[in-house]
Amino acid sequence: MKNNHGANLHQLSETLGINENQIIDFSSNINPFGLSPKGLKKLKDNLQLASIYPDPDYIELKASISSYCNCNSENIVLGSGATELISSTIKIISPKDTLLLSPAYSEYENELIKVGSKITKFFYEKENNFQINIDHLISFISSNCFDMIIICNPNNPTGTLISVEDLEKIYLNFKKPIMIDETYIEFTDSSKTSAINLVNKYDKFIVIRGTSKFFSTPGIRLGYAIVSKGEILDSLNIIPNLWNINIFASLMGEAMFKDYDFINMCHNDFNENFNLLFKGLKNFKEFKVYNSNSNFILCEILSSRFDANNLYNYLSKKGIIIRKAQSFDKLNEKFFRVCVLTKENINLLLKEIEGFIREY
Protein backbone atom coordinates (compact mmCIF):
# COMPACT_ATOMS: atom_id res chain seq x y z
CA MET A 1 0.00 0.00 0.00
CA LYS A 2 3.04 2.23 -0.49
CA ASN A 3 2.27 5.91 -1.09
CA ASN A 4 -1.47 5.24 -0.77
CA HIS A 5 -1.83 4.53 -4.49
CA GLY A 6 -4.10 1.48 -4.16
CA ALA A 7 -3.45 -2.19 -3.74
CA ASN A 8 0.04 -3.68 -3.78
CA LEU A 9 -0.98 -7.09 -5.11
CA HIS A 10 2.41 -8.65 -4.36
CA GLN A 11 2.14 -7.70 -0.70
CA LEU A 12 -1.54 -8.59 -0.45
CA SER A 13 -0.92 -12.01 -1.94
CA GLU A 14 1.46 -12.81 0.92
CA THR A 15 -0.74 -11.23 3.59
CA LEU A 16 -3.92 -12.98 2.45
CA GLY A 17 -2.22 -16.25 1.58
CA ILE A 18 -3.72 -16.40 -1.91
CA ASN A 19 -2.31 -16.20 -5.42
CA GLU A 20 -2.10 -12.75 -6.99
CA ASN A 21 -4.24 -13.97 -9.89
CA GLN A 22 -7.05 -14.82 -7.47
CA ILE A 23 -7.28 -11.27 -6.08
CA ILE A 24 -10.16 -9.24 -7.51
CA ASP A 25 -8.82 -5.69 -7.46
CA PHE A 26 -11.47 -2.97 -7.40
CA SER A 27 -8.90 -0.43 -6.20
CA SER A 28 -6.68 0.20 -9.23
CA ASN A 29 -9.06 1.78 -11.80
CA ILE A 30 -7.69 -0.27 -14.70
CA ASN A 31 -9.88 -1.18 -17.68
CA PRO A 32 -11.06 -4.77 -17.06
CA PHE A 33 -11.24 -5.73 -20.74
CA GLY A 34 -7.56 -6.54 -21.03
CA LEU A 35 -5.05 -5.58 -23.68
CA SER A 36 -5.60 -4.38 -27.22
CA PRO A 37 -5.40 -7.52 -29.42
CA LYS A 38 -3.55 -5.57 -32.13
CA GLY A 39 -1.13 -4.15 -29.58
CA LEU A 40 -0.50 -7.56 -28.07
CA LYS A 41 0.01 -9.17 -31.49
CA LYS A 42 2.51 -6.54 -32.54
CA LEU A 43 4.39 -7.11 -29.29
CA LYS A 44 4.46 -10.89 -29.71
CA ASP A 45 5.48 -10.67 -33.37
CA ASN A 46 8.43 -8.40 -32.60
CA LEU A 47 10.07 -9.77 -29.47
CA GLN A 48 13.29 -10.20 -31.41
CA LEU A 49 13.57 -6.41 -31.63
CA ALA A 50 14.82 -6.40 -28.04
CA SER A 51 18.27 -6.49 -29.61
CA ILE A 52 17.93 -3.06 -31.29
CA TYR A 53 17.47 0.52 -30.14
CA PRO A 54 14.07 2.22 -30.55
CA ASP A 55 13.64 5.05 -33.02
CA PRO A 56 14.91 8.03 -30.98
CA ASP A 57 12.28 10.29 -32.56
CA TYR A 58 9.41 7.81 -32.08
CA ILE A 59 7.88 8.93 -35.36
CA GLU A 60 5.39 6.05 -35.72
CA LEU A 61 4.35 6.16 -32.07
CA LYS A 62 3.72 9.90 -32.20
CA ALA A 63 1.80 9.48 -35.47
CA SER A 64 -0.49 6.92 -33.81
CA ILE A 65 -1.09 9.20 -30.82
CA SER A 66 -1.65 12.15 -33.16
CA SER A 67 -4.35 10.27 -35.06
CA TYR A 68 -5.93 8.92 -31.86
CA CYS A 69 -6.06 12.32 -30.15
CA ASN A 70 -6.61 14.42 -33.27
CA CYS A 71 -3.63 16.59 -32.40
CA ASN A 72 -0.37 17.65 -34.03
CA SER A 73 2.64 15.35 -33.59
CA GLU A 74 4.88 18.31 -32.76
CA ASN A 75 2.76 19.02 -29.67
CA ILE A 76 3.33 15.51 -28.26
CA VAL A 77 5.87 14.77 -25.54
CA LEU A 78 6.45 11.16 -24.50
CA GLY A 79 7.21 9.94 -21.00
CA SER A 80 7.67 6.80 -18.98
CA GLY A 81 4.14 7.00 -17.60
CA ALA A 82 1.90 9.99 -16.90
CA THR A 83 3.46 10.56 -13.47
CA GLU A 84 6.89 11.23 -15.01
CA LEU A 85 5.33 13.90 -17.23
CA ILE A 86 3.51 15.45 -14.28
CA SER A 87 6.83 15.65 -12.43
CA SER A 88 8.69 17.09 -15.44
CA THR A 89 6.02 19.72 -16.08
CA ILE A 90 6.03 20.91 -12.48
CA LYS A 91 9.84 21.07 -12.44
CA ILE A 92 9.91 23.16 -15.63
CA ILE A 93 7.24 25.63 -14.54
CA SER A 94 8.53 25.60 -10.95
CA PRO A 95 5.55 27.61 -9.68
CA LYS A 96 5.93 29.67 -6.52
CA ASP A 97 2.18 29.52 -5.84
CA THR A 98 -0.02 26.72 -7.17
CA LEU A 99 -3.76 26.19 -7.07
CA LEU A 100 -4.65 22.51 -6.76
CA LEU A 101 -8.22 21.26 -7.07
CA SER A 102 -8.63 18.72 -4.31
CA PRO A 103 -9.05 15.94 -3.18
CA ALA A 104 -6.82 14.58 -5.92
CA TYR A 105 -3.93 12.28 -6.86
CA SER A 106 -1.24 12.70 -4.21
CA GLU A 107 1.69 12.96 -6.64
CA TYR A 108 0.72 16.51 -7.64
CA GLU A 109 1.32 17.67 -4.10
CA ASN A 110 4.47 15.54 -3.73
CA GLU A 111 6.03 17.07 -6.84
CA LEU A 112 5.00 20.62 -5.90
CA ILE A 113 6.65 20.19 -2.51
CA LYS A 114 9.89 19.18 -4.27
CA VAL A 115 10.06 22.53 -6.09
CA GLY A 116 9.11 24.50 -2.98
CA SER A 117 5.75 25.67 -4.28
CA LYS A 118 3.16 27.11 -1.92
CA ILE A 119 0.04 24.96 -2.43
CA THR A 120 -3.47 26.35 -2.13
CA LYS A 121 -6.36 23.90 -2.41
CA PHE A 122 -9.81 24.56 -3.81
CA PHE A 123 -12.03 21.72 -2.71
CA TYR A 124 -14.66 19.63 -4.36
CA GLU A 125 -17.12 19.79 -1.45
CA LYS A 126 -19.20 16.89 -0.21
CA GLU A 127 -22.03 19.32 0.53
CA ASN A 128 -22.18 20.09 -3.21
CA ASN A 129 -21.92 16.40 -4.22
CA PHE A 130 -18.28 17.07 -5.17
CA GLN A 131 -19.26 19.35 -8.04
CA ILE A 132 -17.36 22.60 -8.65
CA ASN A 133 -19.05 25.99 -8.77
CA ILE A 134 -17.07 27.50 -11.64
CA ASP A 135 -18.03 31.09 -10.81
CA HIS A 136 -16.76 30.63 -7.25
CA LEU A 137 -13.56 29.04 -8.56
CA ILE A 138 -12.92 31.88 -11.03
CA SER A 139 -13.59 34.46 -8.33
CA PHE A 140 -11.10 32.68 -6.07
CA ILE A 141 -8.48 32.61 -8.84
CA SER A 142 -8.99 36.30 -9.58
CA SER A 143 -8.55 37.30 -5.94
CA ASN A 144 -5.22 35.46 -5.63
CA CYS A 145 -1.94 35.37 -7.52
CA PHE A 146 -1.19 31.82 -8.63
CA ASP A 147 1.49 30.76 -11.10
CA MET A 148 -0.10 27.45 -12.08
CA ILE A 149 -3.36 25.51 -11.76
CA ILE A 150 -3.55 21.70 -11.65
CA ILE A 151 -6.81 19.92 -12.44
CA CYS A 152 -7.43 16.18 -12.70
CA ASN A 153 -10.30 15.81 -15.17
CA PRO A 154 -12.24 13.60 -14.54
CA ASN A 155 -11.06 13.92 -10.99
CA ASN A 156 -9.74 11.07 -8.89
CA PRO A 157 -11.35 10.10 -6.50
CA THR A 158 -14.59 12.07 -6.93
CA GLY A 159 -15.28 11.36 -10.62
CA THR A 160 -16.03 15.06 -11.18
CA LEU A 161 -15.79 16.28 -14.78
CA ILE A 162 -15.31 19.96 -15.62
CA SER A 163 -16.57 20.82 -19.10
CA VAL A 164 -14.26 22.11 -21.83
CA GLU A 165 -16.25 25.34 -21.86
CA ASP A 166 -15.61 25.85 -18.15
CA LEU A 167 -11.92 24.99 -18.53
CA GLU A 168 -11.72 27.67 -21.19
CA LYS A 169 -13.41 30.17 -18.84
CA ILE A 170 -10.85 29.34 -16.17
CA TYR A 171 -7.98 29.93 -18.58
CA LEU A 172 -9.35 33.23 -19.86
CA ASN A 173 -9.46 34.49 -16.27
CA PHE A 174 -5.98 33.16 -15.51
CA LYS A 175 -3.82 33.11 -18.67
CA LYS A 176 -1.00 31.22 -16.98
CA PRO A 177 -0.06 27.52 -17.16
CA ILE A 178 -2.90 25.06 -16.55
CA MET A 179 -2.06 21.36 -16.33
CA ILE A 180 -5.00 19.04 -17.03
CA ASP A 181 -4.48 15.41 -16.07
CA GLU A 182 -6.75 13.41 -18.40
CA THR A 183 -5.77 9.96 -17.16
CA TYR A 184 -9.44 8.95 -17.02
CA ILE A 185 -10.88 11.03 -19.90
CA GLU A 186 -11.21 8.01 -22.21
CA PHE A 187 -13.93 6.59 -19.98
CA THR A 188 -16.03 9.55 -21.15
CA ASP A 189 -16.84 10.74 -24.67
CA SER A 190 -13.40 12.32 -24.99
CA SER A 191 -14.21 13.92 -28.35
CA LYS A 192 -16.48 16.25 -26.35
CA THR A 193 -14.80 16.29 -22.94
CA SER A 194 -11.05 16.53 -23.62
CA ALA A 195 -9.14 19.81 -23.35
CA ILE A 196 -6.81 18.85 -26.22
CA ASN A 197 -8.45 21.33 -28.61
CA LEU A 198 -7.54 24.13 -26.19
CA VAL A 199 -3.85 23.31 -26.65
CA ASN A 200 -3.80 24.88 -30.12
CA LYS A 201 -6.13 27.70 -29.14
CA TYR A 202 -4.10 28.98 -26.19
CA ASP A 203 -0.42 29.02 -25.28
CA LYS A 204 -0.17 27.58 -21.77
CA PHE A 205 -2.15 24.33 -21.73
CA ILE A 206 -0.56 21.02 -20.76
CA VAL A 207 -2.75 17.92 -21.16
CA ILE A 208 -1.35 14.78 -19.53
CA ARG A 209 -2.43 11.27 -20.49
CA GLY A 210 -1.30 7.72 -19.80
CA THR A 211 -2.01 4.25 -21.11
CA SER A 212 -2.18 2.40 -17.78
CA LYS A 213 -5.89 2.88 -17.14
CA PHE A 214 -7.86 2.75 -20.40
CA PHE A 215 -5.43 0.51 -22.30
CA SER A 216 -4.69 -1.70 -19.24
CA THR A 217 -0.92 -1.38 -19.68
CA PRO A 218 0.61 -0.16 -16.40
CA GLY A 219 3.55 -2.51 -16.99
CA ILE A 220 4.84 -0.84 -20.16
CA ARG A 221 5.11 2.65 -18.55
CA LEU A 222 3.98 4.80 -21.45
CA GLY A 223 2.56 8.29 -21.00
CA TYR A 224 2.23 11.31 -23.22
CA ALA A 225 1.47 15.01 -22.98
CA ILE A 226 -0.09 17.33 -25.53
CA VAL A 227 1.36 20.78 -24.91
CA SER A 228 0.80 24.26 -26.36
CA LYS A 229 3.67 25.53 -28.50
CA GLY A 230 6.06 27.72 -26.57
CA GLU A 231 8.62 27.63 -23.77
CA ILE A 232 6.98 24.81 -21.79
CA LEU A 233 6.86 22.48 -24.80
CA ASP A 234 10.43 23.37 -25.79
CA SER A 235 11.68 22.66 -22.26
CA LEU A 236 9.78 19.36 -22.00
CA ASN A 237 11.35 18.21 -25.26
CA ILE A 238 14.84 18.79 -23.83
CA ILE A 239 14.31 16.75 -20.63
CA PRO A 240 13.83 13.11 -21.78
CA ASN A 241 16.86 10.85 -21.94
CA LEU A 242 17.63 9.39 -25.35
CA TRP A 243 15.43 6.33 -25.98
CA ASN A 244 13.44 6.94 -22.78
CA ILE A 245 10.54 4.84 -24.13
CA ASN A 246 11.54 1.19 -24.50
CA ILE A 247 10.96 -0.52 -27.81
CA PHE A 248 8.11 -2.73 -26.56
CA ALA A 249 6.15 0.22 -25.18
CA SER A 250 6.69 1.98 -28.49
CA LEU A 251 5.59 -1.01 -30.58
CA MET A 252 2.52 -1.65 -28.48
CA GLY A 253 1.54 2.00 -28.54
CA GLU A 254 1.88 2.21 -32.32
CA ALA A 255 -0.72 -0.55 -32.69
CA MET A 256 -3.12 -0.09 -29.78
CA PHE A 257 -3.91 3.57 -30.48
CA LYS A 258 -5.18 2.41 -33.90
CA ASP A 259 -7.13 -0.59 -32.59
CA TYR A 260 -10.54 1.02 -33.03
CA ASP A 261 -12.47 -2.26 -32.74
CA PHE A 262 -11.00 -2.74 -29.28
CA ILE A 263 -11.49 0.91 -28.31
CA ASN A 264 -15.16 0.88 -29.36
CA MET A 265 -15.78 -2.43 -27.61
CA CYS A 266 -14.32 -1.04 -24.39
CA HIS A 267 -16.58 2.00 -24.53
CA ASN A 268 -19.73 -0.03 -25.16
CA ASP A 269 -19.05 -2.72 -22.56
CA PHE A 270 -17.78 -0.23 -20.01
CA ASN A 271 -21.04 1.72 -20.03
CA GLU A 272 -23.04 -1.46 -19.36
CA ASN A 273 -20.76 -2.51 -16.53
CA PHE A 274 -20.66 0.98 -15.02
CA ASN A 275 -24.47 1.08 -14.88
CA LEU A 276 -24.58 -2.37 -13.29
CA LEU A 277 -22.15 -1.32 -10.55
CA PHE A 278 -23.66 2.12 -9.99
CA LYS A 279 -27.25 0.85 -9.71
CA GLY A 280 -26.14 -2.07 -7.54
CA LEU A 281 -24.36 0.19 -5.06
CA LYS A 282 -27.32 2.60 -5.01
CA ASN A 283 -29.53 -0.25 -3.83
CA PHE A 284 -27.78 -0.24 -0.46
CA LYS A 285 -29.51 2.28 1.79
CA GLU A 286 -26.36 2.30 3.94
CA PHE A 287 -24.39 4.04 1.16
CA LYS A 288 -24.49 7.40 -0.54
CA VAL A 289 -23.21 6.85 -4.07
CA TYR A 290 -21.79 9.91 -5.83
CA ASN A 291 -22.20 10.48 -9.57
CA SER A 292 -19.05 9.76 -11.53
CA ASN A 293 -17.72 10.50 -15.00
CA SER A 294 -14.94 7.96 -14.75
CA ASN A 295 -14.36 4.24 -14.33
CA PHE A 296 -14.62 4.40 -10.54
CA ILE A 297 -17.34 5.34 -8.09
CA LEU A 298 -16.93 7.11 -4.75
CA CYS A 299 -19.23 5.93 -1.95
CA GLU A 300 -19.91 7.24 1.53
CA ILE A 301 -21.06 4.91 4.28
CA LEU A 302 -24.05 6.43 6.06
CA SER A 303 -24.46 3.73 8.69
CA SER A 304 -23.05 4.31 12.17
CA ARG A 305 -22.48 0.55 12.58
CA PHE A 306 -19.42 0.26 10.35
CA ASP A 307 -16.91 2.17 8.25
CA ALA A 308 -14.75 1.58 5.18
CA ASN A 309 -12.05 -0.14 7.24
CA ASN A 310 -14.57 -2.77 8.37
CA LEU A 311 -15.81 -3.27 4.82
CA TYR A 312 -12.27 -3.45 3.44
CA ASN A 313 -11.20 -6.06 6.00
CA TYR A 314 -14.28 -8.20 5.34
CA LEU A 315 -13.92 -8.12 1.55
CA SER A 316 -10.14 -8.64 1.57
CA LYS A 317 -10.64 -11.97 3.33
CA LYS A 318 -12.75 -12.94 0.32
CA GLY A 319 -9.96 -11.87 -2.04
CA ILE A 320 -11.76 -8.65 -3.04
CA ILE A 321 -9.90 -5.34 -2.69
CA ILE A 322 -11.58 -1.92 -2.58
CA ARG A 323 -9.89 1.45 -2.06
CA LYS A 324 -10.26 3.06 1.33
CA ALA A 325 -10.44 6.78 0.54
CA GLN A 326 -9.44 8.35 3.85
CA SER A 327 -5.94 9.15 2.52
CA PHE A 328 -7.54 11.77 0.24
CA ASP A 329 -8.05 15.33 1.53
CA LYS A 330 -11.33 15.87 3.40
CA LEU A 331 -12.42 12.24 3.01
CA ASN A 332 -12.63 10.21 6.19
CA GLU A 333 -12.98 6.55 7.14
CA LYS A 334 -16.56 6.52 5.87
CA PHE A 335 -15.49 6.83 2.21
CA PHE A 336 -14.40 4.12 -0.20
CA ARG A 337 -13.90 3.90 -3.96
CA VAL A 338 -14.48 1.02 -6.34
CA CYS A 339 -13.64 0.73 -10.03
CA VAL A 340 -15.59 -0.92 -12.83
CA LEU A 341 -14.59 -4.53 -13.51
CA THR A 342 -16.33 -7.38 -15.36
CA LYS A 343 -20.01 -8.13 -14.80
CA GLU A 344 -19.08 -11.36 -13.03
CA ASN A 345 -16.79 -9.54 -10.59
CA ILE A 346 -19.29 -6.72 -10.04
CA ASN A 347 -22.05 -9.19 -9.18
CA LEU A 348 -19.69 -10.95 -6.77
CA LEU A 349 -18.76 -7.65 -5.10
CA LEU A 350 -22.41 -6.67 -4.66
CA LYS A 351 -23.22 -10.11 -3.23
CA GLU A 352 -20.36 -9.93 -0.73
CA ILE A 353 -21.29 -6.37 0.31
CA GLU A 354 -24.83 -7.61 0.96
CA GLY A 355 -23.41 -10.38 3.13
CA PHE A 356 -21.24 -7.91 5.02
CA ILE A 357 -24.17 -5.61 5.76
CA ARG A 358 -26.24 -8.55 7.03
CA GLU A 359 -23.43 -9.54 9.42
CA TYR A 360 -23.18 -5.98 10.79
TrEMBL record:
The keyword Transferase does not apply. Its cofactor is pyridoxal 5'-phosphate. It comes from the Bacteria. Coiled coil: none annotated. The keyword Lipoprotein does not apply. Residues 22-353 form the Aminotransferase class I/classII large domain. Keywords: Pyridoxal phosphate. GO terms for molecular function: pyridoxal phosphate binding. InterPro entries: Aminotransferase_I/II_large (IPR004839), PyrdxlP-dep_Trfase (IPR015424), PyrdxlP-dep_Trfase_major (IPR015421), PyrdxlP-dep_Trfase_small (IPR015422). This is Aminotransferase class I/classII large domain-containing protein. It comes from Cetobacterium somerae ATCC BAA-474. The lineage of its organism: Bacteria, Fusobacteriati, Fusobacteriota, Fusobacteriia, Fusobacteriales.
